[in-house]
Amino acid sequence: MKKIITTSNAPAPIGPYNQAVLSGNTLYTSGQIAFNPDTGELVLDDIETETKQVMENLKAVLEAANMTFENVIKSSIFISNMDDFGQINAIYGSYFDDATAPARETVEVARLPRSVNVEISMMAVK
User: Highest taxon of the source (predicted)?
Assistant: First the structure.
C-alpha cells in the first residue's frame, strides 16, 4: 500500500506528482529543486545556496515521513555543469556522516526544470 507524503515545509509539486510516496518502509522522494517553500521563488544566488535549499527541501520531506538523512539509502543528483560538482558535493556531504552515507550517482544533464543547476531525489528506509 502506498501513502502520499506532503508537507508545506517543502515546495508544492508543479506537475502531476507528489513530494514523496511511502511504500511499506521505503520512501521515494521526487526530485527537489531550489524553490523556497515560503516564497515560491527559486533560490539561485550561487551553487552553494541553491544546493542548500535543495537539501533543506529534502530534509522537510523526510521529516514529514518521520525520517532523517540517516534513513537515506540512495541519492540521485542531477547537475547542469559538472564543474559545480565539488561545491555541490561539499554541501550535500555536510548532511551525512561519511561512514554511513547512502549510495549515490551524480549525472550531468543537458537541462533541468526551470533551468536550475541541481536536482536531487532520494530513497529512504525506516
Answer: Bacteria
pLDDT class for 14, splitting at 50, 70, 90? confident
Please tell me the distance from the alpha carbon of residue 79 to that of residue 5, in angstroms, as a whole number.
25
Enter the pTM of the model.
0.97
Burial of 24 (0-12, 13-18, 19+ CB in 10 A): exposed
DSSP letters spanning 14-38: SSS--SEEEETTEEEEPPB-SB-TT
What's the rounded Cα separation, in Å, for the pair 18 and 90?
28
Domains and CATH numbers, the chain: 2-125 (3.30.1330.40)
Give the tens place of pLDDT for each residue, 83-123: 999 999 999 999 999 999 999 999 999 999 999 999 999 99
Q: What residues form DSSP beta bridges with 33?
A: none
Cα–Cα distances (Å) from 27 to 19, 31, 44, 103, in that order, read 10, 13, 27, 15
